Amino acid sequence: MINWLRVALVLLVIAIMTLLLAPIQLLALRFDWKLRRRLPRLWHGLACRLIGIRIRSHGRLERHRPLMIAANHASWKDILVLGALADVVFIAKTEVSGWPIFGLLARMQKSIFVVREEKRRTGDQVSEIAERMADGEIVVLFPEGTTSDGNRVLDVKTSLFGAAAAALPLAPEGVVYVQPVAIAYTRVHGMPMGRYHRPLAGWPGDVGMVPHLLGVLKAGAIDVDVSFGEVVEYRQGGNRKQVAALVEKRIRSMLLDHLRGRLWR
Questions:
Q1: What SS3 class is residue 129?
Q2: Which of 15, 35, 76, 130 is an S-S bond match for 167, by CB 3.0 to 4.6 Å?
Q3: pLDDT tens for each residue of 137-169
């Protein structure tokens, strides 16, 4: 009973917080104020605290621009976590824009929606991503293209790094920086996340969003370790497949180190 009261209270506070911040964010979007990039970070940070997601950050966000973050993708929680750590914009499947609540939030953060099945639109989408990066925005890419179980990194899709290549002509120094980031859900209530709780980490496609959301809310205290890895410099003449392979290798190494407890401190 207490768990359900807590869930209801958390959802109510998040709803009130959203209603208070939404008008300001809409104005910021309308007039393209810099505030539009900062308010989502505030919202994500407060949402993480309310839900009970405790973030431990390792390493530093790259300071050079244009910057693309390439991160492993376990669930919708990844968006809250990365959004709480930096002023970022996400690349998402166009289906996300139609999701209840999450779709609205994604649109208010000015996420970049891509239609992967329609190749005729690929050029326009890549150009938008490149322009946003050149404008100083940090673009987050989930190169696996889907969510995993949180215990591994799926094979990355090299085609998704095309936006980094497209941003090269707009890069002042002729370099686009791609930073590997590993997101590892490691503990529940301070204890190592064992087999019983591992489903809280990932959000596979066969599990409904509402049941998974409620499970996370009922858990109440989930620790997540986020590692900012060594940057990969994408230059003119660079090989997209090689860049993707190196990024994948670094994400996988950092994720496994956290899951095996090597980086816990």
A1: helix
A2: 130
A3: 999 999 998 888 888 999 998 888 888 888 999
Flag whether the pTM goes above 0.85.
yes
| Identity of residue 198 | R
Q: Within a domain: residue 264? A: no
Question: Considering its fold, how many domains does the chain have in total?
Answer: 1
* Angle of the 2-30 helix axis to the 35-51 helix axis, nearest 10: 180
Q: How many helices (H) and strands (E) does the chain have?
A: 8, 9
Asked if 70 and 237 touch (Cβ cutoff 8 Å), the reply is no
Contact between 183 and 72 under an 8 Å Cβ cutoff? The reply is yes
Per residue in 98-129, pLDDT (tens digit) is 877 778 889 999 999 887 655 545 567 788 88
- 265 domain residue, yes or no: no
Q: Is the peptide bond before 100 cis (omega within 30 degrees of 0)?
A: no
Domain range enclosing 212:
2-259
- Alpha-carbon span 70 to 73, nearest angstrom: 9
Nearest to 131 by CA among 87, 170, 175: 170
- Rounded distance, CA 221 to CA 51, Å? 8
Q: Is residue 179 part of a domain?
A: yes
Written as one letter, the residue type at 154 is L
* CATH number of the domain encompassing residue 209: 3.40.1130
Share of the chain above pLDDT 90, in %: 54
User: Quick one: which H or E segment has residue 89?
Assistant: strand 88-93
Task: State the virtual CA torsion across 140, 142, 145, 147 in degrees, nearest 10.
Answer: -130
Place of tokens 């620790």: 223
Cα 200 to chain centroid distance, Å, stands at 17
